[in-house]
Amino acid sequence: MAKIVTPADCAQVIRVLATALLLMLPYFVAPFTLTLLTEALILAIWAMSLDVLVGFTGLVAFGHAAPFGLASYAAGYFAREVSPDFFATLVVAEIVVVAVAAATGFVATRASGVAFAIISLAIAQVLFQIAVAWRPVTEGMDGLANVPLPRAFGTSFGEGRAFYVLTVAAFVGAYAALRRLVDSPFGHTLHAIRTNEGRAAAIGINPRLHKWLAFVISWAIAGLAGTLLVFMKAGTTPMALHWTESGNVLAMTIFGGIGTLFGPAIGAITFDVLRDEFTSRFQAWQFVFGLVFILVVLAFPSGIAGIVNVAWKSLWRSRS
Amino acid sequence: MAQPLVVQDLCKAFGAFRAVDGVNLEIGAGRVHSLIGPNGAGKTTTFNCISGFLRPSGGQVLLGGRDVTGWPPHRLVAGGLARTFQITKVFGELPVAENLALAARSRAGLNLNMWRRARSAAVADRESEEILDLVGLADQAALRADQLGHGDKRVLEVAIALVLRPTVLLLDEPTAGMSTAETARITTLVRSLVNRTSVLLVEHDIEMVLAISDEITVMTRGRVIAHGTPDAIVRDAGVQEAYLGATEASFW
Q1: Any chain A CB within 8 A of the CB of B47?
Q2: Which side of chain B, N or C, has fewer Cβ within a 10 Å radius?
Q3: Chain A CB within 8 Å of residue B85 CB
Q4: How many CB atoms lie within 10 A of CB B173?
Q5: Is residue B110 in a domain?
Q6: Alpha-carbon distance B239 to B102, whole Å?
Q7: Which residues form the domain of B201?
Q8: What is the pLDDT of residues A22-45, one digit of tens each?
């Protein structure tokens, strides 16, 4: 019999094609659209990082603006005051984010359910207040401005294409790393904890340690997104830490479909494109997104990824 | 050599209510020891205190001579103590084999591995297969655990615990909700475990308890009222009165 193409092979081909498409887009679209796409991919990294907690660990975080905004401040400050080298800035931002994640996550992951959601919200609110009040460093409500363009490999990553390519690389890297993570023994252990924490403990798993690590990893990936954001916008404000942002990223993640990684990425991109489409036409664009959100989640509790999965499975079933 | 499991003067109070009140147990190597008593006697609370799901208010738990009182469950597992649950708790979305692989990886300390593929990291696959053979689930290895029948799920519970290579295995009502045929299967299985581990069993099925136990401890209202071989327990007047008085004395 001839070689059989498996769904896994096909998915791999789709991933490669999608990456190639992302890399070729700059040659076809207007600069404005490219900026929008850059932003959408940054939000996608952020939403995937939240999926590690919500979808894969079962911890619904309502304060995921915290790592995003925190990284944007740490990166923006370092890039402006010390060096705009992209990788040095990223390392500094990650050190700050991981240190804060390790400390706050140690406390937060002792809770679960609503208590965890509230604690994560409280962490973000504390950071928001610090950003507003610590004027000498954060410049209060004005936020950091005039963050220079990042430099890497000896050249400046001017606006537009080069920065877009950097973002695509970060996005693909984050997706690949997280995909690997959730398919690893560690990822399966998170699944065990999520489905039955008592059972997991009874087979020798330390639930607290694993949830804590998942928290830190989730924050670290969100830190990558925050670093990219501050370079893209050449600045940041306390609004990056605001609870409405935490709500937005949770909405993107659920809308896209939790526990799937690619779902939240698509959710974030859809969210960003819809926001762009509608803000210019309606004052209350959230109303439109809210309506789409409710309809999709009502029909498909597992979000856009749910729709895609159903289509994907029926495609393969009809062939076999 | 120290006994695999010794429980000394174990107490657990919930407010003013003393659910477990000075319980002593000693489980010998390769023995099947049953803990029986009417509902509310404190058997499951005792179990939870031993396995780290509850912190005892007083007393000691010694595992292989080592004081492990108040250890969290995952540390006790590493120390050689495994348990099953009265209410079936298998990982339903995962295949039967992966249920065992999770336990095998946990024992091998591979939980934190974030890089390897879970499938290729299925350590001790051979051993998991051997245990699936032993419990008679080899044919269902690829099925999702929630597709198993109730009896098979109960057996899978035991199999997961066995992968942990415990020196002491706590079985919390392994035959709960089972048919007669399935109960017989569990009975044979538990009896066959004595060359692997010591067993402490909480069970309501008296017939099964009498058939497989080397020793029986009887509890009522948080206290031990009798301890001995099945024969001695059957003849114990105190047990008949306290435990069986509520049902029917002629049951024996």
Answers
A1: no
A2: N
A3: yes
A4: 20
A5: no
A6: 42
A7: 5-93+165-251
A8: 888 888 888 888 999 999 999 999
Nearest to B111 among A186, A198, A202 (CB): A186
Q: Which value does ipTM take for this structure? A: 0.86
Residue A111 CA to its chain's centroid (Å):
22
Other CB atoms within 10 Å distance of the CB of residue B48: 20
B72, A201: Cβ pair inside 8 Å? yes
DSSP symbol at A141: G
The total domain count for chain B is 1
Please give the structure tokens belonging to residue A307. Answer: 């729709």
Choices 1.10.8, 1.10.287, 2.60.40, 1.10.3470: CATH for A31-319? 1.10.3470
- Residue B98 touches partner A, C-beta closer than 8 Å: yes
| Nearest C-alpha in A relative to B104 | A203
Residue B243 pLDDT grade (very low, low, confident, very high; cuts 50, 70, 90):
low
Q: Is residue B127 part of a domain?
A: no
Inter-chain CB proximity A188 and B98 less than 8 Å: yes
Distance (Å, whole) CA B59 – CA B116: 43
d(Cα B186, Cα B156) in Å, to the nearest integer? Answer: 11
The verdict on residue B146 lying in a domain is no
Find all residues with CB under 8 Å of A115, minimum gap 6, and list them.
none
Q: Are A190 and A208 in contact (CB under 8 A)?
A: no
Tokens 């989730």 belong to which residue? A218
Mutate to test the interface with B, among A57, A179, A199, A213 (most CBs of B within 10 A): A199
Kindly tell me the sign of the dihedral angle through the C-alpha atoms of A55, A58, A63, A64. Answer: negative
**B90 touches A: beta carbon within 8 Å:** yes
- R_g (Cα) of chain A, nearest Å: 20
Does B115 contact A203 at a Cβ distance shorter than 8 Å?
no
Distance from CA of B126 to the nearest CA of A (A): 18
Sign of the Cα pseudo-torsion (A221, A223, A228, A232, in order): positive
Nearest to B118 among A187, A203, A206 (CB): A187
**Mutation site for A-interface testing, chosen from B102, B113, B167 by largest number of A Cβ within 10 Å:** B102
Under 8 Å between Cβ of A250 and A222: no
What CATH number should be reported for the domain holding residue B185? 3.40.50.300
Based on its alpha-carbon atoms, the radius of gyration of chain B, rounded to whole angstroms, reads 18
Q: Is residue B153 part of a domain?
A: no
> Is residue B190 a contact partner of residue B171, using CB atoms and an 8 Å limit?
yes
Average pLDDT, integer, range B23-40: 91
Report the pLDDT value the prediction gives residue B250, as an integer from 0 to 100. Answer: 44
Judge: B112–A191 Cβ closer than 8 Å, yes or no. Answer: no
